[in-house]
Amino acid sequence: MTLVSVLPEATRDAVVNALGDKIKSISIHWGEVTVHVATDNYHAVSQALRDAPGCQFEQLVDLCGVDYSEFPGGTPDGLRFCVVVHLLSVSLNQRLRLKVFASDDFAPILPTVTDIWSGANWFEREAFDLFGIVFDGHSDLRRILTDYGFIGHPFRKDFPCIGHVEMRYDEKLGRVVYQPVTIEPRENVPRIIREENYGGLQ
Q1: What is the CATH number of domain 8-146?
Q2: Phi, psi (deg, nearest 5) at residue 51
């Protein structure tokens, strides 16, 4: 059996029919449909995208957080934290990008979609760990890449490159200890020396 890819325009039309006024914006870039929805509609939209005829996105391929705090021109709603979900319909051979912004920059919270796509589990934990986005209803929301004593969320744009604390093994205590960072911040700027007329340039 040969699968025929659905044209992005057909995918867009099916998504519009399924979601209606729950869509904030929808576009096609690089042959893939991107749909932007509000926080309040995120869970219902996810359910519809999985189940609605013409959509049938059975598989969540990826879910990640994004910090738009330094994005040129800001975001349409002026919000900072976004979750981007990449979906795949195996049965219809089509893809979709779903974007939702957390409505509170200081305490970003979104509903979990692990009850819709179980594969979202570790992706949501990663977004929580690295960006501090909380997924309400997640059954086991804890750090997954950093250690349990880690302070802060390292993929936020305002997180210092050297971190807040460092971990080392203390031989006297016989265990791992945490202490304030002792690395001095520095900038490594390469020094370039060019001779006159280098490469024939004046």
Answers
A1: 3.30.460.80
A2: -105, -25
The encoded tokens of residue 103 equal 């409505």
Q: Where are the domains of the chain?
A: 8-146
- Tokens for 105? 């920059």
Number of Cβ atoms within 10 Å of the Cβ of 159: 17
Over residues 171-188, the pLDDT tens digits come to 999 998 888 877 676 666
Which pLDDT belongs to residue 167?
Answer: 78
CA torsion 46-47-51-52 (nearest 10°) is -70
Q: Is-contact 89 113, C-beta < 8 A?
A: no
Q: How far apart are CA 144 and CA 48, in angstroms?
A: 29
The amino acid present at 168, given as its one-letter code, is R
For residue 185, what pLDDT is reported? 65
Q: How many CB atoms lie within 10 A of CB 140?
A: 10
Cβ neighbours, 10 Å, residue 178: 13
Report the alpha-carbon distance of residue 166 to residue 172 in Å, rounded: 18
**Whole-model pTM over 0.90:** no
Report the C-alpha gap between 110 and 40 in whole angstroms.
Answer: 9
Tell me the C-alpha distance between 157 and 90, whole Å. 35
pLDDT digits (tens, 9 = 90+) for 118-148: 999 999 999 999 999 999 999 999 999 988 7
